[in-house]
Amino acid sequence: MASSSSYNSPCAACKFLRRKCMPGCIFAPYFPPEEPQKFANVHKIFGASNVTKLLNELLPHQREDAVNSLAYEAEARVRDPVYGCVGAISFLQRQVHRLQKELEAANADLIRYACNEVPTSLPAPPGASSIQSMVPRQRPVEYNRRMGNEGGYYQVPGMPMPYNLPWNDNPSGDTNGGGGGNM
Amino acid sequence: MISGRCAACKYLRRRCPSDCIFSSYFPSSNPQRFACVHRIHGACNVAKMLQQLPAAHLRAEAANSLYYEAQCRTQDPVYGCVGIISSLHQQIHSVESQLAKTKAEIAVLESLALEPAQIQENGVEASFYNFSPEQDKAAGHFNHSTNISYHFM
């Protein structure tokens, strides 16, 4: 991204803050004057000084992604003042859960077909009974290992339990001020 | 009253008024909650966001989601919650692929389960297992040819 401050055109942040856009302005590479709403949202939700602190703590090559993710979160919060992008997380978690249930059912069907695939008119191959007894155990274990979780919701290592909104199927969401979701 | 201050007012070192916007959602029993939100969003922004909501239960939900976002951002300063959204999309894609593959396998097994019944109806299977002497000779001749082909191999 070109630095707008080098062309005497203040960046969107400095325009918004009504200040001179100095060379080396930390916002200039990421908030071009053509996108005023981007900084307006970020400022409304995070504040200019917090964004400055955040960016200063990051390496230069990380800042663009950080600004874009902040802008995404800010826009989501402007659109949904109650849940912000946490609403999207909850929706996607439910979708993952639904798909995993569907996959479990499909795997169960596959096992049933695999167990019944040897026709009764032909002799079973040697060791078929041992194979058939292994198959029902193999797929669920393999599936869980692949998925990396045992429940239906995405779990971030070190993060609190998945976020449960009050209108989830799981009624364990906490709606009082003492905590969020299953935290 | 100093002893009745909420976590926000304690953190901000100010008096906690009776109508404090933070007190219901940032109790003094959990100081880390407000500290985390304050670090990412700032007290003024949080107060404005809570005040614009008309009902207490909406404010409670907003405080909870702000805390969750702040925690995500603290753990991942570059991507925050967006990192989780991206991972969930990848997970969905992965599970959908596996589901499609499993359904395809089921379809194959379903079609294989139908085939023996169809062969028996046509009588092909019966003739396959009942060789006539002429067929045996043809089979032997064929085997001889096969042996020659193997010899060259």
From TrEMBL, chain A:
<protein>
    <recommendedName>
        <fullName>LOB domain-containing protein</fullName>
    </recommendedName>
</protein>
<keyword id="KW-0175">Coiled coil</keyword>
<dbReference type="InterPro" id="IPR004883">
    <property type="entry name" value="LOB"/>
</dbReference>
<dbReference type="Pfam" id="PF03195">
    <property type="entry name" value="LOB"/>
</dbReference>
<feature type="coiled-coil region">
    <location>
        <begin position="89"/>
        <end position="116"/>
    </location>
</feature>
<comment type="similarity">
    <text>Belongs to the LOB domain-containing protein family.</text>
</comment>
<feature type="domain" description="LOB">
    <location>
        <begin position="9"/>
        <end position="110"/>
    </location>
</feature>
UniProtKB/TrEMBL annotation, chain B:
<protein>
    <recommendedName>
        <fullName>LOB domain-containing protein</fullName>
    </recommendedName>
</protein>
<comment type="similarity">
    <text>Belongs to the LOB domain-containing protein family.</text>
</comment>
<dbReference type="InterPro" id="IPR004883">
    <property type="entry name" value="LOB"/>
</dbReference>
<dbReference type="Pfam" id="PF03195">
    <property type="entry name" value="LOB"/>
</dbReference>
<feature type="coiled-coil region">
    <location>
        <begin position="85"/>
        <end position="112"/>
    </location>
</feature>
<feature type="domain" description="LOB">
    <location>
        <begin position="4"/>
        <end position="106"/>
    </location>
</feature>
<keyword id="KW-0175">Coiled coil</keyword>
